[in-house]
Specification:
The complex is a heterotetramer. Chain C has 15 helices and 14 strands. By secondary structure, chain C is an alpha+beta fold. The N and C termini of chain C lie far apart (53 Å). Chain D is elongated and about 80 Å long.
């Protein structure tokens, strides 16, 4: 007894043979409990992902087996003007709507980050649009922005402004779609608010003592401390905007009315798959989307190291 | 009285400005809701009236009866479909995701981190990337046109909800499970009798999120369903609006009644929603 | 803006919403989308789905089934009408449980070429509805590489519709013979009716065409074509077509302030149905538009729809363009196909034979889609006689027959819907001045040709 | 019955060996306490005995039976957890009954057993309550009850008292001691609190980074620490450690140059051998000037009433702790002379091994 260390030479590199273990129940249960999900992940994500890459290189007949055509589908989408137009629109949409949405949500969160009688009410109001089904929301916007009798234009005209033809003018339509996407920013706002409320009070108070200027604290203390939330909102926002579909379909139909101004990548993809039944074309588009989103996400995460502050790091 | 007199006037002014700004923003956010709500009680002429009618006069309840009796917008049928769809998904998600989240959050096994990492990747994967083969699969099975493709996958779990639930499962003390193991409970029983009761609230939260998600889901039903009587409300509303472009009062009544259940659900369960939101972002 | 309130429509005809939103269309359905048919019992799928339309076809099929001693037949109405319907049909074929017969509102060529529908040629050989009993131009919309994949049993025939009252109010003769014979004349006449109140279009004459489906007719009227079937070439950017679009664009500039937005704000001047995306009303049927091009089915809708409408409508041949000399008409057929995997192909074909002759007569009586088989002779529809008198009805039916005889080939590309979408895209760009006529058309041309080549290579 | 035996038990976390081949025998009816600093592996070892952690090498025997392949519930062990780990959604009654029900016991037997246990622990009135409605001490007693009710052969306690306040801790400690006497069961008790260890244990097992440093009765580990680690870990305030060298004649040479005679005779080894002298604080005393071996400045004086703990810094910069009478006259900053009493002192070689 006492300090016997017979295993000293077993060392790190030669782990002892694992024997019958009591804990194996837990490990077995762990696998069993995760099994349905692992099966689901395989059936509905992993295998389809691979098949998508496959279909993207096939000429897919509706009946019969797919025919291998190599990169033909890719050259076809490269040559398809609708793909280019929609990619341009989607990129514009994402690049404009995501930053604006984040800034607006941050402003709202900063405004909300104080305790008043009505803060519950405000929070509810900002969150509600998120619950509105996208179809219903888009339809209401069509009515709100009606050029002749819509209340928005009437109010703008009353204020002496000359409002655009929101849904008819190709130059304005994409902005209308962006406007529509800004409306449900409750989730982003509440995420930011959660971040703000997690800032320890002492840090906040220390910052107040250090500098009397509010913006100073915002730039040097508040924003750095909620960078994880900014990252989260940025990544989810971009992934979501690249896949915007419902609003675009309700507003612009499958042709992206007017003049393809609201034609989104997903709509073109939908059209290729379910109107022209050109699965190869659609799969190639999906693959391109996958690569672009993947690269963007990686890029964001890569740069995130330099601008995202995690509390855990300081410990 | 004395109390108020102590507050500095500058402070009062500041508060007033704050609330004025916030109420103005709130008004902007609420305008679509308000417009939808009042349009549901106007006829077309009143909806397009110039100047704008800010309050419906008369209040036309006949839109409601018209909506409920139309055969090109079987509202009640579609409402029932939506309820069925949402509840099925919510139940499936609560069951399947609590299994996986328990495994990821509470049990230790080799490969766990790998599988969970893949789950997070799946979360970031654009849905369309995997959609086409899945669609072709369901079609081959002849289940296109039914709710199977829309509900069945959730019985295997869902990356987002697993991620969300796992946050809660991580908070369940390990000792509780150890105690149950010592008490002779099987691993399944531990999950069912010991751990699940601890995450009852999170499960309700996940169920609520699943209901909202499903209620608003559009792409899946658009692809898989063709029969108007089988549509959920979101799709039913879309097809009605696209077809009956002129009947705005009915469209708006439909939109209002489609949005209303979610709004009410949210108002009743706000606290849970916010709790769920907080946990879905903790990365 | 004063807004008329429209009551609930009782029955809606089939193409009513197709133009509005290509994505959706009204989807009306009965349960049983996945219902497979049994041996000896016919199962029919119909797109669209007004009650009347559905009732007529249910009746026709049931009558046929009982007289042919088949089992009870099933008619499934309205699994969508455009993309969704095709999607459902393809789904059922892929799953191996298709209907025996399906109506289609898009050319069966492209899906037939992909192996979705049975070629009917063998069965047609020894049948009373053999190849030679169909107008070749119409049948070509079902043919690909020597196979016939469907039958255009009836068709809506396109003509110019005009408002006699409006013409008379300006002291212009309203009879068919006096209607303009050329685009130039029509454009001149149009000015008479176009009234602007500032930037608001109060009423209009005629419009430069904005319906992509009818573009083939306009192109033919200008001596051109959109698709050259013999050489399998799209001709979207041919000289005639560029001239046509330039003509329309000039017209827009001259008469409509060069701004389609202003037109669209004021109502739907494009066609005779409410516009789905802006929700504005059909100007023609509100009496604010002198005339437009539309299919013969509109007369059914005029009587069936509660949309404010007028009684003094009439039809005339579509005028010819500057480079064209021959007046032509066009159609939008109701195609019938027998999907691959049908359990009763012979019975299904027998039904098509019945429908093409006896059935189409009954059909035309209630919904004015013109029978196309040469063995059928037209008789004026009852609803028309009731509303406008026998003389007018007979005259109109005779007129429709003459129009049907001069239809130009259309719907005959194996990549029809893709080509149509490209044309729509080009038109929208041209009218919104997002691209020049030449650029827009040549863009559309190369895209459409590429898709056609892909389909042909497949 | 109830003996626990560990034979070369090993545990790896990844490639890191956290339990380094431990051999140990806990006799039937014995109360053994595992002590050690946090991270020493004491809890892990306990959980391995319970079957809650895999045993990667060696064997665990309970009542002579190798249990590595047995589920925790089949090992005849019960455990009390640091945070009680009561099932929050069950009443105290159900908490107690849960394990019995799992073992398939008849309803009536479960009931009588639960009530019997509750009576023993005087928690009968708590039975209908849920854990949330109980104080810390009450929860602790229910947790112990849950362990007792199954009449296990071995009780495992994982720092069960650390969440309680000081007064309750003393009370619970005595209750556990009483239980041990009444139940005569084997108990293994993990704590980082050496007072608990000293007062409760039949034997103490001192663990450090996955190794057993010493096993012995509380007196043994206190008075005869096997090595420097045990010496410094056991005892509060900790043992004073002074560097010394062996004088020419086998005597002790302090840093200050003072020479002292080792009570046990001569120190082994060559002259000049560097060693560490370990002295309990109560072996140091304040003495008059010129009588002490070491002088230093009082750094901190903790007046605890009946005694005073003085922290003194020597000229050589060593910190010493003295335990004096409550009325010791020393004050902060005083220069004091310290006398050393070498009875019971320990000597350690530079490896930390006890030499004499």
């Amino acid at each position: 007894m006492g300090k016997s260390t017979p295993s000293g030479q077993a060392g790190a590199e030669t782990l002892p043979r694992r024997r019958r273990r009591a804990g194996r129940n837990e490990a077995r249960a762990g696998v069993l409990f995760a099994l349905p999900w692992m099966i689901g992940l395989a059936i509905f994500t992993a295998i389809p992902l691979v098949l998508t890459f496959y279909i993207a290189q096939a000429r897919f007949q509706i009946t019969g087996a797919p025919k291998w055509v190599g990169l033909q589908n890719y050259s076809a989408i490269w040559a398809d003007p609708a793909v280019w137009t929609s990619a341009q629109n989607t990129l514009m949409f994402a690049m404009i709507s995501v930053p604006i949405k984040l800034v607006l949500a941050l402003c709202l969160a900063l405004l909300l980050n104080r305790v008043t009688m009505l803060s519950g009410f405000y929070r509810t109001v900002f969150y509600l649009p998120f619950l509105m089904p996208a179809v219903a929301g888009s339809i209401v916007f069509i009515l709100l922005l009606n050029p002749v009798a819509g209340p928005v234009n009437m109010m703008l005209q009353a204020m002496g402004l000359s409002p655009p033809d929101w849904l008819l003018d190709p130059k304005a339509a994409l902005w209308t779609l962006i406007l529509l996407s800004l409306w449900p920013l409750g989730v982003e706002t509440l995420v930011f608010l959660g971040g703000l409320q997690n800032i320890p009070k002492d840090i906040s108070e220390a910052a107040d003592l250090d500098s009397p200027r509010g913006w100073h604290k915002l730039v040097w203390i508040t924003i750095p401390l909620i960078t994880p939330m900014i990252l989260f909102n940025l990544v989810t926002g971009i992934i979501y905007s690249f896949q915007v579909f419902t609003q675009a379909l309700v507003i612009g139909g499958t042709t992206g009315k007017p003049a393809e101004a609201t034609l989104m990548y997903m709509v073109v993809l939908y059209r290729a798959a379910f109107r022209y039944f050109n699965m190869g074309h659609a799969a190639a588009m999906a693959t391109v989307l996958f690569v672009v989103v993947l690269l963007l996400t990686l890029l964001i995460f890569r740069t995130a190291r330099s601008w995202v502050y995690y509390e855990g790091e300081s410990r | 009285m004395k109390k108020t007199s102590r507050i500095a006037p500058a402070r009062v002014a500041q508060t007033l400005v704050y609330h004025a700004v916030m109420l103005a923003i709130s008004a902007v956010f609420l305008l679509p809701f308000y417009w939808m709500a009042i349009s549901a009680f106007k006829n077309n002429a009143e909806i397009f009236a110039n100047p704008v009618l800010w309050f419906p006069d008369p209040i036309r309840l006949e839109n409601l009866t018209a909506l409920l009796t139309r055969d090109d917008f079987p509202f009640l049928r579609q409402f029932a479909n939506s309820v069925f769809y949402a509840l099925s998904v919510a139940c499936a998600v609560c069951f399947s995701c609590s299994l996986a989240a328990y495994s990821f959050g509470c049990l230790r096994w080799r490969g766990r981190n790998l599988v969970f990492g893949l789950t997070v990747c799946a979360l970031l994967l654009p849905g369309i990337v995997t959609f086409l083969p899945v669609y072709l699969g369901w079609t081959k099975l002849g289940l296109n046109g039914t709710y199977w493709p829309l509900i069945a996958p959730f019985f295997f779990g869902d990356a987002f909800f697993i991620f969300m639930l796992r946050q809660f499962f991580l908070g369940v003390p390990r000792e509780l499970m150890d105690a149950a193991r010592l008490d002779g409970a099987s691993e399944f029983r531990i999950w069912w009798q010991i751990v699940l009761p601890q995450v009852r609230t999170p499960l309700i939260i996940v169920g609520l999120f699943a209901i909202v998600y499903t209620w608003n889901e559009f792409f899946g039903p658009l692809i898989y369903l063709q029969d108007r009587d089988e549509f959920p409300l979101s799709l039913g509303l879309f097809t009605f609006q696209a077809a009956r472009a002129r009947e705005w009062s009915i469209s708006m009544t439909g939109a209002l009644l489609t949005a209303l259940p979610m709004v009410v659900l949210f108002l009743v369960t706000q606290r849970l929603f916010r709790q769920g939101l907080a946990s879905s972002t903790l990365k | 803006m004063s807004e008329k309130t429209y009551a609930v429509p009782g029955s809606i005809s089939r193409r009513r919403f197709l133009h509005g939103s290509a994505a959706a269309g009204a989807i009306m359905a009965l349960p049983g989308a996945t219902l497979a048919q049994a041996e000896g019992q016919l199962l029919l799928w119909l797109p669209g789905g007004s009650d009347l339309f559905c009732k007529i076809h249910t009746g026709l099929l049931e009558g046929f089934s009982s007289s042919a001693n088949l089992g009870p037949a099933t008619t499934v109405c309205g699994l969508g009408q455009d993309t969704e319907f095709t999607q459902a049909l393809i789904g059922s074929i892929t799953a191996g449980s298709p209907p025996d017969i399906s109506m289609l509102w898009d050319s069966p060529v492209s899906l037939g070429a992909q192996g979705a529908f049975m070629p009917l040629d063998e069965m047609m050989k020894n049948s009373k509805i053999g190849i030679d009993t169909w107008p070749a131009g119409l049948l070509s919309s079902c043919q690909f590489k020597g196979n016939t994949y469907g039958l255009p049993v009836t068709a809506g025939v396109y003509t110019m519709w005009y408002n006699e009252e409006l013409l008379e109010s300006k002291g212009i003769p309203s009879d068919r013979a006096s209607f303009p014979k050329t685009w130039v004349e029509m454009r001149k006449l149009s000015k008479e009716f176009t009234v602007w109140d500032g930037d608001t279009l109060v009423s209009a004459g005629f419009m430069p065409n904005r319906i992509p489906e009818t573009m083939a007719i306009w192109s033919a009227l200008n001596g051109g074509m959109l698709f050259d079937e013999a050489n399998l070439k799209y001709m979207l950017d041919s000289e005639q077509n560029i001239e046509m679009m330039n003509f329309f664009l000039e017209w827009l500039d001259e008469e409509y302030k060069g701004d389609v937005n202003l037109i669209d704000r004021a109502g739907n001047f494009k066609e005779a149905y409410p516009d789905a995306s802006s929700g504005l009303g059909p100007a023609f049927r509100e009496g604010r538009q002198a005339g437009l091009i539309s299919g013969s089915w509109l007369m059914g809708d005029i009587y069936a729809d509660p949309v404010p409408t007028f009684t003094r409508w009439n039809m005339a041949p579509i005028p010819v363009g500057p480079s064209g000399t021959t007046a032509v008409s066009g159609t939008w057929p109701n195609w019938f196909v027998i999907p691959v995997g049908s359990k009763n192909p012979q019975a299904a074909f027998d039904y098509l034979s019945y429908l093409a002759i006896e059935g189409s007569v009954e059909w035309y009586q209630q919904i004015p889609d013109v029978p196309t088989n040469s063995q059928v002779s037209l008789k004026a529809p009852n609803s028309l006689i009731e509303n406008r008198g026998a003389e007018f009805a007979d005259d109109l039916t005779a007129f429709l027959a003459t129009q049907a005889a001069i239809v130009t080939p259309m719907w005959n590309s194996p990549s029809q819907s893709f080509g149509n979408d490209q044309m729509a895209r080009a038109m929208e760009k041209i009218y919104t001045k997002a691209a020049s006529v030449k650029d827009a058309l040549s863009d559309a041309q190369s895209a459409a040709q590429a898709e056609l080549d892909r389909v042909m290579a497949g | 019955m109830g003996a626990v035996q560990l034979l070369g038990v090993q545990k790896f976390f990844g490639t890191m060996e956290v339990i380094k081949g431990i051999d140990l025998r806990v006799d039937d009816g014995e109360l053994v306490v595992f002590v050690g600093p946090s991270g020493c592996g004491k809890s892990t070892l306990l959980r391995m005995i319970a079957g809650l952690e895999d045993v990667d090498g060696g064997e665990v025997l309970i009542s002579g039976v190798e249990v590595s392949g047995l589920a925790p519930a089949k090992r005849g062990v019960a455990m009390v957890f640091q945070n009680y780990a009561l099932y929050p959604h069950m009443s105290a009654y159900d908490n107690l009954a849960y394990g019995l029900r799992r073992s398939g016991m008849a309803r009536a037997d479960v009931d009588s057993r639960v009530r019997e246990t509750a009576a023993l622990l005087q928690i009968t009135d708590l039975l209908p309550r849920r854990p949330k409605a109980m104080s810390g001490g009450q929860r602790q007693r229910v947790a112990i009850g849950r362990a007792i009710v199954r009449k296990p052969e071995v009780f495992l306690f994982d720092e069960p008292l650390s969440n309680l306040d000081a007064a309750l801790r003393v009370e619970m400690r005595s209750q556990i001691a009483r239980l041990h006497q009444e139940l005569k069961a084997t108990m293994i008790f993990v704590t980082h609190d050496q007072v608990e260890a000293m007062t409760l244990a039949d034997r103490i097992v001192v663990l450090n980074s996955g190794r057993v440093e010493q096993v012995g009765t509380p007196r043994e580990v206190y008075h005869n620490p096997a090595n420097l680690f045990v010496a410094s870990f056991i005892g509060s305030p900790a043992m004073n450690l002074l560097p010394i060298t062996r004088g020419e004649d086998g005597s002790i040479l302090l840093e200050s140059g003072e020479q002292m005679i080792w009570p046990g005779g001569k120190i082994d080894g060559p002259p000049g051998r560097a060693l560490t002298l370990g002295l309990r604080p109560d072996r140091l005393s304040l003495v008059g000037s010129d009588q002490g071996q070491i002088s230093g400045t009082v750094h901190l004086a903790e007046h605890l009433g009946d005694e005073t703990i003085l922290h003194v810094q020597t000229a050589a910069g060593r910190a010493l702790t003295l335990k004096c009478d409550g009325d010791a006259p020393a004050r902060l900053g005083d220069l004091v002379q310290i006398g050393l009493d070498l009875t019971g002192a320990c000597l350690f070689d530079p490896d930390g091994r006890r030499v004499q």
